[in-house]
Input
Amino acid sequence: MSTKHPSTIIGWREWVSIPDLSRHPIKVKVDTGARTSALHAENVVIRKKGRRQVVEFTILPHQETRKDRVTCVAELIEMRHVKSSTGHVTQRPVVVVEIQLGGRKWPIELTLVNRDIMGFRMLLGRQALCDEGFLVDPGASFLQERKYSRKVN
Output
């Protein structure tokens, strides 16, 4: 295992902050079976801004409620084909954001997709965790402190 940090144990559910997008922490499902991380997004629109493309979207940081909607803008990295756990392939926008978990901050790739029918608004995949030295305890939840962020925009 190649890591930059000593191992930190996290549970299968944790709170993650995404200061670039929202001041509200998001409850995530840590899924080492998923390669890519995914964030629930609505009203996704891709626009040209100068020489680059940006994606505008709305996130709902709280489970089971539509309050505290946050409108976000991020640079579009690429459109990527992603296969869901049911085998369905969709093309999703990919953005890079900095997340905070367990006192650490680092950039990850996030695909934007409608996760309304899923139990969690965000899925944290193994690609986001691979170099950070996290060990996942599948029998534990919320082992790291819940942090509130300041929205940059």
